[in-house]
Design a protein that fits this description.
6-stranded mixed β-sheet; 245 residues; globular; 8 strands; Lambda Exonuclease, Chain A; two-stranded parallel ribbon
């Protein structure tokens, strides 16, 4: 396994040809769904936009925020035709923010004052490695002085975040990151989850060895299917074997 670690902007990171966990996870549903998502990426929602604003302001510099985000006077949602046309005119790597996102993010950041972050060199850093002979990548939010990899999530479902972890495959993300950054010998993976609704409370989630082992088995299953599909050229949908309920 080869490994390199360096700082990349989001634009540089997403332009890098290595596979990331969000691009890999669709194959765990089916090969057909994986191919569909290559052509039809998920569209951003207002909550995703807010999360990106909070993420940048919490972990990066104001200069990075000014370079990356462009103000938009949004009135009817980020999926409107007018907003889509506005976003299409942005420079590569730029994203929008609204006054609502900015106001909410300021309130959220006030409740993160007690979170101790490492120096900037250990935040938002990219790892490039290999799995099963394929180039893979991950961008860690931060790597703390005790050896833990961290990810910061914003959510409207803080009280039910255990279900969010399952629904969004954050266990897969955790195992993926631990594998990519294995040469740094991380102690484990934690998520700092913060509510997007007042009072913007937060919780910390730590992945157990048992959860990570199951996630590793899922990643192996996904790569098995990926390799089979590359070899056969066939990208089938889900099995038609009855599901017991």
């Amino acid at each position: 396994m080869t490994f390199t670690s360096e700082y990349m902007t989001d634009a540089e990171y997403f332009a890098h040809p290595a596979m990331n966990q969000s691009g890999f996870k669709p194959i765990l549903k089916s090969a057909l769904y994986y191919q569909y998502r290559l052509d039809e990426p998920l569209q951003p929602s207002h909550e995703i936009g807010l999360g990106k604003v909070c993420h940048c302001k919490f972990l990066e510099s104001e200069d990075e925020f000014r370079d990356r985000f462009v103000f938009y006077n949004l009135t009817k949602g980020v999926k409107t035709k007018k907003c889509t046309e506005f976003m299409a005119k942005l420079n590569k790597g730029q994203e929008i923010y609204t006054q609502s996102m900015l106001d909410t993010s300021k309130n959220m950041l006030k409740n993160l004052d007690d979170i101790e972050l490492p120096g900037h060199h250990m935040r938002e850093f990219t790892g490039i490695s290999t799995m099963r002979g394929f180039a893979v990548k991950a961008k860690a939010d931060w790597f703390d002085d005790d050896g833990w990899l961290w990810d910061y999530k914003t959510t409207s479902k803080l009280d039910k975040f255990e279900w969010v972890i399952r629904d969004f495959g954050y266990d897969i993300q955790a195992m993926w990151y631990l594998s990519v950054f294995a040469e740094l010998e991380p102690k484990g993976f934690k998520i700092l989850a913060q509510s997007t609704t007042r009072p913007h409370d937060k919780r910390i989630f730590e992945f157990t060895p048992e959860t990570l082992m199951k996630a590793q088995q899922e990643i192996i299953r996904g790569f098995d299917l990926y390799e089979q599909c590359l070899e056969s050229g066939d990208w089938p949908g889900r099995s038609l074997e009855p599901t017991l309920v």
